[in-house]
Design goal:
CATH topology: Rossmann fold
Largest sheet: 6 strands, parallel
Number of domains: 1
Helix content: 25-40%
CATH superfamily: P-loop containing nucleotide triphosphate hydrolases
Shape: globular
Order of helices and strands: EHEEHEHEHEHEHEH
Strand order of the largest sheet: 2-5-1-6-7-8
Number of strands: 8
C-alpha cells in the first residue's frame, strides 16, 4: 500500500475506475482516490478536448505534482463515445494500441475509463475488453439516485461474466441508504462507501471524503 494512504484498506498496485453510466462522477471519485492514496492517475482515452480535460481537472482539484499523472494515449476531439469520436477524428483505437505503463512514480496506478463498461472503443471492442485484457480489478462508481440499482446490478453482472474482480462499489451523490443496501444485497458486492456531494472540491475535502470510506 502507498505510504501516503489515509485509509487502512490495502489498495491493489493498480486498478480501474469505471462507472455505471456517464456523469456518475467517476472523475471526482478518481480524484478522491488519488488524493487519498497519493498514487498515479491515468485516463488512457479522453473523449472531448473543449474546455478542461479529465486529467487537467484531476490535477486542478488534487493540486498534486505532474509526476502523479500520465498523458492520455488517445485525445479525441469530440465528447462522444470513443468509437464515434475516434471515427470522426479519422483514427481507429485498437486494443494493442493501449498498453499499461510498466513504471510509474507513485502507486497505486488509478486508471479511469470512458463512460461505462459497455462503451465501445471500436467496431467490436468495449471498455470491458480493455479491462479484461489488462487484468485489472475494478472500482465501480454508481449514482445514488433512482435507477441506480438496475444500472449497477447490470454492470456487476457484466464484470462477472468477464471474470473481472470487483474491488467494490462507491456510491456518489445524496445519501440513499436503501439503494446502497439493495446494491450490496442483490449484487453480493462490497460497498466501499458513499460519497456525498462536495460543496467545494479541493485537496482537503477530497482527502476528508477518502478518509470516511467505510469498507463494509
Amino acid at each position: 500500500m502507498n505510504s501516503g494512504s489515509m485509509n487502512s484498506y490495502d489498495w491493489p498496485d493498480r486498478f480501474f475506475v469505471t462507472g455505471t453510466d456517464t456523469n456518475v462522477g467517476k472523475t471526482v471519485i478518481s480524484a478522491m482516490l488519488l488524493a487519498g492514496t497519493g498514487g498515479t492517475y491515468w485516463k488512457p482515452i479522453q473523449s472531448g478536448l473543449e474546455g478542461i480535460t479529465d486529467t487537467d481537472y484531476v490535477k486542478q482539484v488534487t493540486q498534486l505534482a505532474d509526476e502523479h499523472f500520465l498523458p492520455e494515449r488517445f485525445r479525441l476531439t469530440q465528447p462522444l463515445s470513443p468509437h464515434l469520436s475516434a471515427a470522426l477524428d479519422g483514427i481507429t483505437i485498437a486494443l494493442s494500441d493501449l498498453q499499461l505503463p510498466s513504471q510509474v512514480a507513485h502507486r497505486p496506478l488509478i486508471v479511469e475509463g470512458a463512460g461505462g463498461v459497455m462503451v465501445p472503443i471500436n467496431d467490436r471492442h468495449y471498455i470491458i475488453d480493455l479491462i479484461a485484457t489488462w487484468g485489472l480489478p475494478v472500482c465501480l462508481v454508481a449514482r445514488s439516485t433512482l435507477g441506480t440499482i438496475n444500472h449497477t446490478l447490470l454492470s456487476i453482472a457484466q464484470l462477472r461474466r468477464f471474470e473481472i474482480p470487483i474491488l467494490g462499489i462507491i456510491v456518489n451523490g445524496p445519501e440513499n441508504i436503501e439503494n446502497c443496501r439493495a446494491i450490496a444485497h442483490y449484487g453480493n458486492v462490497k460497498m466501499i462507501g458513499q460519497v456525498p456531494p462536495l460543496a467545494t472540491i479541493n485537496p482537503a475535502t477530497l482527502r476528508q471524503a477518502f478518509s470516511q470510506l467505510n469498507w463494509h
